[in-house]
Specification:
With 507 residues, this protein is an alpha+beta fold. It has twelve helices and 22 strands. Strand 9 and strand 10 form a beta hairpin. The chain starts with 6 loop residues before the first helix and ends in an 8-residue tail after the last helix. It binds zinc ion.
């Protein structure tokens, strides 16, 4: 996710950026405040013709994922120290098949999860919004008892043994609602998860949680899984999802889009967008195909996105190493934020128009956050520290306007955020995504660079994602790894930057 400085800091930042065109950033802040209430209130029924329910009869498409896919989906789920309500450590999802149908108002879904349990259980819990009513649940082909409470679904089983593979099918329907964010951030006021625009189009932003607003899920980064999706929509609408686009098929007035995700993804990194989208494929100089999905009203953004996307991709492959996934796309949506959703970056129009390198930031997360992912939300600085470091390096290296005046100016904003929201290594859980998890951790990485020198640091930048591909990591993993790689005890430096109530003095 990108950070957009707010409040007291914003004026100073705009001042700092004014020569480089800060107007865009200020506009986003204004737009956010003005537009969010209409986006969160009940959407206007948009579609005069109600599409028929989804074609859930017959065998769903990829009902039996391969053994190799199931092995890739194995995780060691944990309970989150900050947001325990959305973590279910007894459940390890291996593969999700999402069969979704949207008529502009009602979501009808059938989710098939191949899973194992991490202990012997007679009951397991998944996260699912109370706005969605479950019609039936089957485990291994047999109907079972279930109950819904708050934003959870409890499934009673006959007794599942640790480690054995099972399948649960959950059929549900309802009008999805976003869930409140544990944050005062301006671009999170829409609410997390499923958002429906006034015209019936759909988008999601769901960090640190919110996937549960549209499908039953173990909604925690420690439980990554593979996905297949089939999205049925009416009229000219197309459903966009992560991964490889397998094409659409038409029947009557309905469009069915199919998607396949071949590497494990955390639920906060899934995305869905529904609207009159068309795909525009651009090939970078090194031969990577990037798909841009835009609605007709956003087509004016395409050319600039393609230029920025290609340059960001080439720069990142040079500095972060080989791209860790097989596909890459960008979907432009309503709302006011931007999110590094895995292999399909979600960009609001406002974020796409900002002068700093938002697209490069979200693309950098594909290495730092998506491929190597924090085990829990206390470690979100691992995502944003690296992404901000790469963003400011890219901006400096390519002569773009530097975010908030560049890293040498960040101390002022970091100290304000530490005082209000806590240090980056132990932030206030009700201030998720504040500046404290972005700037200080990036400055910490810069301190490591100064300590070990440019050449060795640039090697670290590449080897961190390369050596932890598809892994979940903790602060202890990071510290141990950095100390091993450098042969120095950098623990005091890391602790000082992550734990100090005020910004440490740079060296
Ligand atoms: Zn970010």
């Amino acid at each position: 996710m990108t950070q957009h400085l707010r409040g007291a800091a914003t004026a100073a930042v705009c001042l700092a950026l004014s020569l480089a065109g800060c107007g865009g950033a200020a506009d986003v802040a204004t737009t956010t405040g003005a537009s969010s209430p209409t986006q969160t209130s009940a959407p206007t029924p948009p579609t005069p013709t109600a599409p028929t329910p989804p074609t859930t009869t017959g065998a769903p498409d990829p009902l039996t994922p391969s053994a190799a896919a199931l092995k890739l989906g194995r995780s060691t789920p944990v309970e989150d120290p900050y947001y325990p309500d959305t973590s279910n450590p007894e459940f390890d999802a291996l593969h999700y098949f999402l069969n979704l149908s949207w008529d502009g108002l009602t979501l009808t879904g059938s989710t098939t999860i191949t899973f194992r349990t991490t202990e012997d259980v007679g009951e397991f819990r998944l996260d699912l919004s109370a706005a969605l009513e479950v019609d039936q649940v089957e485990v291994d082909g047999r109907g079972v008892e279930f109950s819904q409470q708050d934003d959870g679904l409890s499934v009673v089983t006959e007794g599942l043994e640790t480690g054995a593979t099972h399948t649960v099918v959950i059929d549900y329907t309802g009008r999805p609602e976003p869930t409140p964010a544990p944050s005062g951030r301006g671009d999170m006021t829409e609410g997390l998860g499923w958002n429906t625009s006034a015209d019936g189009s759909v988008y999601t932003f769901q960090e640190p949680y919110g996937a549960f607003t549209w499908y039953p899920v173990n909604d925690h980064p420690s439980d990554e899984a593979l996905y297949d999706a089939r999205i049925t929509t009416g009229g000219d609408d197309v459903g966009v999802f992560n991964g490889e686009f397998l094409g659409t098929s038409q029947s009557d007035d309905l469009t069915v889009a199919r998607w396949h995700v071949d590497e494990p993804v955390a639920s906060y990194l899934t995305t869905i967008a529904i609207g009159p989208y068309t795909e525009h494929v651009d090939t970078t100089p090194s031969g990577m195909e990037i798909s841009y999905w835009l609605k007709p009203s956003d087509l004016d953004l395409l050319e600039a996105l393609e230029v920025e996307g290609a340059e960001s991709f080439e720069w990142l492959e040079e500095h972060a190493g080989e791209y860790p996934f097989s596909t890459l796309g960008v979907v432009v949506v309503d709302g006011s934020s931007a999110m590094e959703t895995q292999t399909m970056i979600t960009m609001s129009r406002g974020a796409a128009e900002r002068p700093d390198a938002v697209l490069e930031h979200e693309m950098a997360h594909q290495w730092y956050g998506d491929s190597v992912t924090p085990i829990d939300w206390q470690g979100v600085w691992l995502n944003e520290g690296w992404a901000m470091y790469m963003q400011q390096w890219y901006e400096t290296d390519t002569g773009r306007p530097p975010y908030a005046g560049g890293i040498s100016q960040w101390r002022t904003y970091d100290v304000v955020s530490r005082l209000s929201s806590g240090p980056p290594g132990d932030y206030d859980p009700q201030s998720f995504g504040d500046t404290n998890i972005y700037l200080g951790p990036a400055m910490m990485l810069d301190e490591i660079r100064k300590r070990i020198g440019d050449e060795e640091f640039e090697e670290l930048v590449k080897s961190w994602p390369a050596e932890h591909e598809n892994e979940n990591v903790s602060r202890a993993d990071f510290t141990r790894w950095v100390n091993d790689k450098t042969g120095q005890d950098l623990t005091p430096l890391i602790d000082r930057w992550l734990d100090s109530p005020r910004t440490p003095r740079p060296s």
